Amino acid sequence: MTRDAPSDRRLEEAMDWLLRLQEAPDDPALRDRVEAWLSADPDHRRAWDQARKTWQIMGEVTPATSGAWERETAAAPAPGPSPAPLPATPNAKRGARPPRRQRLGLSLAALAAAACLALAFGPSLLLRLQADHVTAAAEIRRLTLEDGSVLHLAPESAIDLRFTDEGRNVALLAGEAFFEVTPDARRPFAVEAEGLRARAIGTAFGVGLSAGAVSVEVESGSVGVRSDVTAPPIDLRLGLGQALRFDRDMKTTSLERRAPGDLATWRHGQLLVTDASVAEVVETLRRYQRGWIVIADDRLAARRVNGIYDLRDPDGALRALVHPAGGRVLEITPLLRVLRQGS
After folding, report:
1. How far apart are CA 293 and CA 285, in angstroms?
2. pLDDT tens-digit profile of 14-66?
3. Rounded-to-integer distance, Cα 132 and Cα 134, Å
4. Is 199 helix (H, G, I), strand (E, B) or coil?
5. How far apart are CA 172 and CA 167, in angstroms?
6. Where in the chain are all domains bearing CATH 2.60.120.1440?
7. Sheet hosting strand 292-295, strand order edge to edge
8. Architecture of domain 133-259
9. Could you read off the pLDDT of 13-25 as tens digits, one per residue?
10. Contact yes or no for 174/156 (Cβ under 8 A)
11. How many Å apart are CA 162 and CA 157, to the nearest integer?
């Protein structure tokens, strides 16, 4: 184990102290005990820093108690012998409490469950007001549209359909979708996603939205792609096996050719990754697993990877993703996984 990677047990202990401080931020005895734990071993400080980072990534605020007292502890000289911990208050006065490990599991489970409910029902409630079809986490749906075209909708995805006598228009609001389009020259089939418009008559193609990019890939036929929001504007035709990706952050467009069988592999339970960061892959894997996946190390998040990952086994995919980079998956609760460096 490297010096920079606290053990799983230490990380759990740090999470436990963090949760206790959230429950009792004005308890001076508790703060003294945390100070004593932090000063007892440098590994405790590293675990504490990692636990706080995980907490913040999950959307929680930094504990109010981690102010001057914690900065003083961090700046203190190398620790000597650890002070004896304060004796616990008798159960008769405070009420029985479950063992620390059990309490940690219950607290984190409740926290993760609340966060997952907020993610699952908050955004989807808004999407349901706009969309005709929405999928949940780990759900892939196959639908036959009114014109006979077939729609494959990836997990946590949403579309809005606007079919008229003049055209068949689809708005991709979130996630990914793949279309097997029934030919109809009088009614072109078009998909719009964040200002990018893909137009076809009879073909099979996919469109995807991620946090930083819009993509279009063609399995058969051809698709015209246009966008006036890009710089420079996009106006081109994609043929068999071509895939376009517009990076909204970098304002760049890339075009590559793939084997038709390597397109929209999520339909078959696989994720094909070519030169993507661990963070980008985790963004996709989050949609195939209920709960939270947190990356607690910036170096691990930025690591570039290539590979094929099994979407039917998200935990196995996570392990296969981080193991070559020296990372590991720490299961805090059934609803929370932390990716971290270290053996």
Report:
1. 9
2. 877 877 787 678 888 888 899 999 999 888 888 888 777 666 655 544 443 34
3. 7
4. strand
5. 16
6. 133-259
7. 292-295, 336-341, 327-333
8. Sandwich (2.60)
9. 787 787 778 767 8
10. yes
11. 17
